[in-house]
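User: Sequence in, structure out. Go.
Assistant: Echoing your sequence, followed by the structure tokens.
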Amino acid sequence: METKKVAVKYGATAVIVAIVIIATTIFANPLLSPLFSRQLGPKTTFLIMLTDPPTVPSGTTQLNLTYSGISVHITYLDGTSSWVPVQATGKVNLLSLLNMSQTIASIVLPTGSIVDKIQFGISSVEARVNNVVYPVTMLTNQLLVLIRGNGVVSGATAGVLFDLYPTLTQINAIDSTGGNVNYYVLVPSAIAIVKTNIAEQQREVGARVELDDDDHYELDEVEASLSRNLNIISASLSVKGTITDFSVTVKNVGATNATLFGLILDGTFNETESDDVEDYDLEEESVPFRISGTSLVPLLGENDDEAEENQLISSLTIRSGQSVTLSFSGMLQIQDDDDDEGETAIQTILTPVLGSRFTIRLMGESFKTFNLKATLIP
């Protein structure tokens, strides 16, 4: 009996020692733990490529965008997932990427993992219009886009082609001296697709290659498919005095989530200075709105200090079958800078012209337009 007790005692001790040795080994070499096992095994090169056909006002010769803070979302073989930051920072003239793609980053990922989303950060934008350089206000400084297509990292060199096709919106205003002044806002749309037909010369960071027929076809197919997913169910635009009420109800009728970054309201507005509400001028304007929850926030002015300070993200994900109503109520007031003497500049107020036709342009993973007329608030 004593022998059996000793055997059991030493057996238990051996198990404890073994556990301690294993734990110590894992602690000393964390790559052996399940948490880090996804770092082991074969790797595949994955490229980030950018293309861009922007819509810009007449006279625009440069649209310079500085990008940073890029990440891709990865699901690993063990079922875990994470955002992987990509070392990519640079400046590109978007007008130089018409019908071209530029490789902006190269990363190494575990073979067999899945890439399904990309996050693209915008640090700053400036535009050269009629030989004058203007700072550009960004509707959002961060884009989160689903990668469409088979994102399995198969072992052969592949990548994501990020198609950033923004609209540069010009806003006309009157400064404190009565002169005309232009402000610019960048309203983005974007889609991302998996690209596998990668030429050898495209694999170097910085390389530019002309888009081929397959690229054009796939981008057009994805954009057309996404545009069918997001519908404007109804919209209203009403005016009372200087107060504008504007609402849009959007429904995702597709099978996958849809992303919306903001919208633009195009049409004819009464334009007046805040100290003389009787003196109206008619102007064709494009008023951009960013999204904050279910509220629409107009971006009218040279800078949006709140957005710059808080790194605001204008983005709304609408689930399959979901309807969302976005709304604004208030004055559409252009925020001019203070004048040279430090006095507050006279503000310009926009009000939709009653009975005029307006066009809503949704800006997200696809375009969607809707026409309506301005009515009087009872």
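User: And one key feature?
Assistant: Helices lie at 2-28, 213-229, 305-310.
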